[in-house]
Amino acid sequence: MAKYSIFSLVLNSLTRHRHWRPAWRKAEPRPEYDVVVVGGGGHGLATAYYLAKEHGITDVAVLEKGWIGSGNVGRNTTLVRSNYMLDQTVPFYESSLKRWEGLSHELNYNVMFSSRGVLNLAHAPSQLDVFTRRANSMMLNGVDAEMLDTDGVTRLVPNLDTSPGARFPVVGGLLQRRGGTARHDAVAWGYARAADRQGVDIVENCEIEGFLREGDRITGVVTRRGEIRARKVAVAVAGSTSQVMALAGIEKLPIESHVLQAFVSEGLKPALDTVVTFGAGHLYISQSDKGGLVFGGDLDGYNSYAQRGNLPVVEDVVSAAVAMFPCFSRVRLLRHWGGLMDMSMDGQPIITKGPLDGLYLNCGWCYEGFKATPASGWTFAWTIARDEPHALNAPFRLDRFRNGYALDEKGRGPYPGHH
Question: What percent of the chain has pLDDT above 70?
Answer without folding.
Answer: 100
